[in-house]
Request: fold
Amino acid sequence: MADLNETHDPTRRSWVEAANAPDCDFPIQNLPFGVFQSPGRAPRGGVAIGDMIFDLKVALDAGLFSQSAQAAARAACAPTLNALMALPPRQVSALRRDLSEVLRSDGPDRRRIEKMAGDLLVPMQQASYRCPAVIGDFTDFFTSVDHVTRVGRIVRPDSALPPAFKHLPMAYNGRTSSVVISDTPVIRPRGQKMRGNGDVEFAPTRALDYELEAGIYIGAGNALGTPIPLRAAPEHIFGLCLLNDWSARDIQRWESVPLGPFLGKSFCTTISPWIVTSEALAPFRVPAAARAKDDPLPQNYLQDAADRAEGAFDIDLSATILTAAMRSKGQAPARITLTNLNTLYWTAAQMIAHHTCNGCNLQPGDLLGTGTTSGPTDESRACMLELTAGGKQPLKLPDGETRAWLEDGDEIAFHGRAHRDGFVPIGFGACRARIAPALSA
Ligand code: MN
Reply:
């Protein structure tokens, strides 16, 4: 687990002025990695600082990194970050230490470095983002007891919680070809579903939904046949992003019995462009969510005292909606979910330990979704299925519109922010996308 060090120092400021604003997602204490392109710059790795992207290739060519950070800096310049993710955490940490030195307002070389700012920094509004890794596999978990309980009541009135839920972090193997970066339109999928009158039809989904989740990027992988023990699992978490596991509930309901999610999920998954590293998140680790007294004791491979003590992340997560009508009237997006990643029943490390307990190998750049991050309160319901009780109680929006499910033109945006007294809060940027009409048949 990453330790606290000078890169988390709350007094540290950057000479990139926007990074010092109290509400900025990307202060010098964050330094997340992503892949961007801009006019004249081919896709390459960069680091978010304030409202700018720090170009790692320009910095490497200018000789700004020390010997200990060279290997990580070279890997981080690439158009995909898998090689960076595969490195031992201490090498990624050495790069973070150098980045903090180069960008701090009171660094010894500030004058020389700031003169290169025109080359080193790209304004975010001039850039577009790429998927930051070749994602070999995507696994979506199902770890919020509140989500599972509410959904259970809606779709299976007889059995609210699946029997295995409190024994293991449940998941399904997802699809990677349709994982897309923020701001890629989501085309309303067509599919098979059963109508209320019992007829089966093939048509655009009428029950399009979002799921507010965090994504976990795997760093170093494991050899096939060699499980990752729970106590070692934090070392395999490269970092986190925001993830929207879009769902077509009518397609999902019809196709899922008994094998689980398929086309109701695989049409699109949206991720935020920046990966907030494990090291940046070190100050925001908190105890794993409490278990009820009569909950079963997990098997030994899912038990670890350090994981109980600091295996969860205190990250506020929100979802907003902006409908076409709201947009045309110049209205602000309306918040429909406010939750926290610390409510999940299972920790990220437990997900990794369980995923590999049968010998399954994870690889650098693999992506795990935490599952819908709903908490116990009404405002923390993190998908429409919960917010509208399966479409039966439409959501009222501030401009008078209602939504049972998402409609064409609706834009859903997620934000995340980690905070703790005595530390500078850090954020994730946006995970956002707009619904486009179904393609003609
Ligand atoms: Mn999901």
Remarks:
- The chain has a mean pLDDT of 96.
- Residues 140, 211, 213, 245, 369, 371-372 surround manganese (II) ion (CB under 6 Å).
- The first strand starts at residue 33 and ends at 38.
